[in-house]
C-alpha cells in the first residue's frame, strides 16, 4: 500500500462512494461530506500527492488544471462573484486528509 493511501484515493478508485460533481483524466471534484459553506467542493488530483510541499516540477500542469477547473465550476454554478479557494497544508493548519486537495467554498 502506498504510504499516502487515504480516503480520497479510495474515492478516486471507486472503492467508496461520494458525490462526484466533475471528473477528467487527472482529477475529480466531489462534494465535501461536512460542508463549511453552502457550496463546498474538493478538487482532488488522481495522482497521490500528499501536500503542496510535495509538488514536483512535473506537477505544474496538474496544479494549473486544478485552478482552471475551479474557475469552470464557479462559472457553471453561478458563483463567480464570490468564492474562496483554499489549500490547508499539514495538520497544524488543518489538513486532515494527506492527499492534495483544493477547497472551493461559496455562500452565494
Ligand atoms: P482538509 O482538512 O484535509 O483540508 O480537508 C479534508 C476535507 O475532506 C474536510 O473538509 C472533510 O470534511 C472532507 N472529507 C473527509 N472525509 C471525506 C469523505 O469520505 N468524503 C467526502 N466527500 N469528504 C470528506
- Which strand order does the major sheet show? 1-2-3-5-4
Helicity, as a percent range? 10-25%
Task: Determine the mean pLDDT.
Answer: 96
Element string (H = helix, E = strand): HEEEHEE
Low-confidence stretches: none
Derived structural class: alpha+beta
Task: Tell me, briefly, the overall form.
Answer: globular
Number of strands: 5
Reported for the largest beta sheet, the result is: 5 strands, antiparallel
| Helix count from the secondary structure assignment | 2
**Subunit organisation of the chains:** single chain
Ions and ligands: guanosine-5'-monophosphate
Would you kindly provide a written description of the structure presented here, covering whatever features stand out?
By secondary structure, this protein is an alpha+beta fold. It is built from two helices and five strands. The protein is globular, with a radius of gyration of 13 Å. The structure holds guanosine-5'-monophosphate (5GP). Guanosine-5'-monophosphate binds next to strand 2.
Name the descriptors.
single chain, 2 helices, five-stranded antiparallel β-sheet, binds guanosine-5'-monophosphate, 21% helix, alpha+beta, globular, 108 residues
